[in-house]
Amino acid sequence: MSQTRAVDLDGELTIQTAAEQCPRLLAVLDKNTTVRVGLTGVTEMDTAGLQILLAVRREAERLGGAAEFLDASEPVREALAILHLDAALRPIAGGR
């Protein structure tokens, strides 16, 4: 049976917060689980933050699940666009 879990991120998703945020996100992953990551509250994101999101997606898929990124804030959309990763992460607007 597939499960769905949600986690909302707030504040910075940067190199300064990566050591704290990555384990928090990976901890919600489980076999055959879809994780919905809310990005509305993210105020700043750098390449370390993007790496965390990509790692969450990769690990979720390895476990037979999925990661969905919801309601990206303007800083998230800008970071994704600059690095041409907006199509790769496909944030969903109004996903809640």
Essential attributes:
Transcription Regulator spoIIAA, 96 residues
3D structure, described in words:
- The chain has one domain: STAS domain (Transcription Regulator spoIIAA, 2-Layer Sandwich), CATH 3.30.750.
- It is 41% helix and 30% strand.
- It has helices spanning 18-27, 47-62, 74-82, 86-89, and strands at residues 3-13, 33-45, 66-70.
- A 3-stranded parallel sheet has the order 1-2-3, with helices on both faces.
- Helix 1 (18-27) packs parallel to helix 2.
- The longest helix is centred in the middle third of the chain and has 16 residues, at 47-62.
- The chain is globular.
- The model has no long low-confidence stretch (mean pLDDT 90).
SSE topology:
Layout: E1 3-13, H1 18-27, E2 33-45, H2 47-62, E3 66-70, H3 74-82, H4 86-89
Question: Short summary of the structure?
Answer:
α2 links the parallel β2 and β3. The chain has a single domain, classed as 2-Layer Sandwich (Transcription Regulator spoIIAA). α1 (18-27) packs parallel to α2.
The spatial strand order of the largest sheet comes to 1-2-3
pLDDT < 50 runs, ≥5 residues: none
CATH fold title: Transcription Regulator spoIIAA
Oligomeric organization of the protein chains: single chain
Tally the structural domains. 1
Tell me the β content: 25-35%
Determine Rg (CA atoms, Å): 12 Å
Biggest beta sheet attributes: 3 strands, parallel
